[in-house]
């Protein structure tokens, strides 16, 4: 039988160490909403989302109450809209209308974000893909809850450099269209390589075409819990360190598994995966950087950072996979700069640089995330940064992503405030050397040799 | 039977157990197990209860217990047992 010590441990994790379930994300397929008539597409999308997700927020709140665990976000991901709107949309404006429909549906069911305003163009772009991508700046500036992502490469297909070049322009244009809000639009735009079909975390969530009609994914979190556990094993060996991280990750993931099963049962929608990520928030004691510092770094960004992060990421996975039979999504440690107080401090001190962050993305779950850069950064340089990150993902057979915010009108040394879970960030310097001729070459980078496994 | 855990934490005072138990009895919540300690003047209690015959909804009992807790200066929390079971048992 459960004893008082165990009950207190769990409740301390929740009350003092910021243990929470970060998101219940309902994935919805919109493939059956395809139609040649745009208003019909909009009508079907709105009806399907508001029907399937009508009890999502309510159910999330009930589970929260009964188990005493905060469920921070309830969200929706949908089929990449380039596929859904392909037959009906003849212009970028047509796609923007779908974005507005998604926004309205998200508002109606009470979710704070809806992901899937996306195109999968890792090898080539269709006419619809191009239109959708070109409509992203407008779509993100005239909606509140819509999140967008574009997959520009994969280990199997190589990298679509035409799309990467275009995304450099799109990121800048999105920044310009949302410049009154410190270029906030770019915080809702992710450029992926090897994007997973079942990621529950925003802004990169979309409902892949390999998924069922509707499915529940859950993303867990808990950097604070890991940090606290590691405080108890200071100066111990790596073996003890790894054991502690694994045990903690196991406990965190089990809570996610419970919430996922309950949500699935109550909503009558099948359970998909648990994403066992350490997702930080700007709250004190909810930071991945602080874990790395607890492992033994003076400051995140110092030599040893990549190794410490590799260890952390691996142990989180090893502990987590035992706790759930279906682990998926991104699963690992997130290192978004603006959403992590320790990262913010290190970047402000100049200890954490873009180059070090790039190295860190080789060993953790995502990529260059929530990084503010000067607004006058050229589009080709942004495309170069995206290409570097995509190459890391492609060659290492992992997901990588870029969510970078060129803040219009701001320079290195200034700070940008996004608010809420998105936090704030110092503007980080970008290498001033250009890559224009490289980025302007047409075509794609071929898939690496080790992708030919057949 | 879905079991529920009630935790009561706060500064020790006269009648904490009496108040909580009276409320549970009035609402047909059956107590299966109680353990309680006092550490440095702080009252710490855990109850395992069966709510299958309860006369009110989970949410109502949860918020009413919270109010009783506030009145006597302790923090009362009501949670389904599964969250502890899942986390601490393989």
Structure write-up:
The complex is a heterodimer of chains A (454) and B (90). With 454 residues, chain A is α/β, with parallel strands linked by helices. Helix content of chain A is 44%, strand content 17%. Chain A contains 15 helices and 13 strands. Chain A has helices spanning 4-16, 38-52, 56-67, 81-85, 92-109, 127-142, 161-177, 223-231, 238-267, 288-295, 305-323, 341-348, 354-360, 379-396, 436-439; strands spanning 21-28, 71-78, 114-120, 146-154, 158-160, 189-193, 214-220, 271-276, 368-374, 400-407, 415-417, 424-426, 444-445. In chain A, strands 1, 2, 3, 4, 5, 6, 7, 8, 9, 10 and 13 form an 11-stranded mixed sheet that branches. Chain A has a two-stranded antiparallel ribbon with strand order 11-12. In chain A, a hairpin with a 3-residue loop joins strand 4 (146-154) and strand 5 (158-160). Chain B is an alpha+beta fold and 90 residues long. Chain B contains 3 helices and 4 strands; from the N terminus they run E-H-E-E-H-E-H. A 4-stranded antiparallel sheet of chain B has the order 2-3-1-4, sandwiched between helices. In chain B, a hairpin with a 2-residue loop joins strand 2 and strand 3 (42-50). In chain B, helix 1 (16-26) runs antiparallel to helix 2. Chain B is globular. The mean pLDDT of chain B is 93. Chains A and B meet through helix 1, helix 3 and helix 9 of A and strand 2, strand 3, helix 2, strand 4 and helix 3 of B.
């Amino acid at each position: 039988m459960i004893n008082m010590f165990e009950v207190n441990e769990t409740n301390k994790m929740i009350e003092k160490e910021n243990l929470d379930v970060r998101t219940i994300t309902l994935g919805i397929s919109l493939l059956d909403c395809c139609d040649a008539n745009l208003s019909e597409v909009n009508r079907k999308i709105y009806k399907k989302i508001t029907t399937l997700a009508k009890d999502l927020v309510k159910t999330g709140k009930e589970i929260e109450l009964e188990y005493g665990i905060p469920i921070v976000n309830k969200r929706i991901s949908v089929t990449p809209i380039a596929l859904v709107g392909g037959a009906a949309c003849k212009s970028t404006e047509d796609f923007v209308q779908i974005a507005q429909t998604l926004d309205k549906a998200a508002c109606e069911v009470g979710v704070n974000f809806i992901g899937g305003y996306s195109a999968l163009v890792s090898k080539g772009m269709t006419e619809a893909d191009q239109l959708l991508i070109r409509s992203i700046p407008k779509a993100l500036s005239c909606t509140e809850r819509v999140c967008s992502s574009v997959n520009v490469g994969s280990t199997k297909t190589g990298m679509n450099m035409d799309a990467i070049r275009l995304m450099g322009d799109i990121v800048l244009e999105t920044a310009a269209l949302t410049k009154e809000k410190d270029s906030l639009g770019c915080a809702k735009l992710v450029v992926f390589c090897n994007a997973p079909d079942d990621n529950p975390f925003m802004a990169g969530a979309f409902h892949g075409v390999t998924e069922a009609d509707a499915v529940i994914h859950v993303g867990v979190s808990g950097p604070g819990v890991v940090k606290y556990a590691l405080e108890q094993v200071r100066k111990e060996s790596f073996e003890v360190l790894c054991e502690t991280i694994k045990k903690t990750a196991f406990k965190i993931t089990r809570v996610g598994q419970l919430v996922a099963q309950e949500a699935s049962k109550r909503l009558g929608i099948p359970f998909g995966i648990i994403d066992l990520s350490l997702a930080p928030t700007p709250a004190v004691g909810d930071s991945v950087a602080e874990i790395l510092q607890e492992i033994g770094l003076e400051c995140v960004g110092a030599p040893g950072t990549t190794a410490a992060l590799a260890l952390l990421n691996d142990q989180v996975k090893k502990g987590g996979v035992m706790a759930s039979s279906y682990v998926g999504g991104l699963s690992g440690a997130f290192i978004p700069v603006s959403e992590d107080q320790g990262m913010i401090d290190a970047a402000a001190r100049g200890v954490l640089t873009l180059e070090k962050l790039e190295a860190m993305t080789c060993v953790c779950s995502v990529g260059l995330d929530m990084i503010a850069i000067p607004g006058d950064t050229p589009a080709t340089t942004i495309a170069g940064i995206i290409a570097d990150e995509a190459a890391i993902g492609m060659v290492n057979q992992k997901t990588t992503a870029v969510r970078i915010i060129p803040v219009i009108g701001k320079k290195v040394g200034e700070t940008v405030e996004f608010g809420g879970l998105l936090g704030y960030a110092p503007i980080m310097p970008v290498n001033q050397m250009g890559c224009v001729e490289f980025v302007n070459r047409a075509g794609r980078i071929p898939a690496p040799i080790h992708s030919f496994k057949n | 039977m879905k079991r529920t855990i009630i935790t009561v934490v706060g500064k020790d005072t006269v009648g904490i157990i009496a108040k909580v138990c009276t409320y549970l009895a009035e609402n047909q919540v059956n107590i299966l197990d109680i353990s309680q300690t006092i550490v440095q003047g702080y009252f710490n209690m855990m109850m395992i209860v069966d709510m299958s015959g309860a006369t009110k909804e989970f949410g109502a009992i949860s918020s009413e217990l919270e109010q009783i807790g506030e009145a006597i200066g302790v923090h009362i929390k009501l949670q389904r047992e599964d969250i502890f079971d899942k986390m601490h048992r393989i």
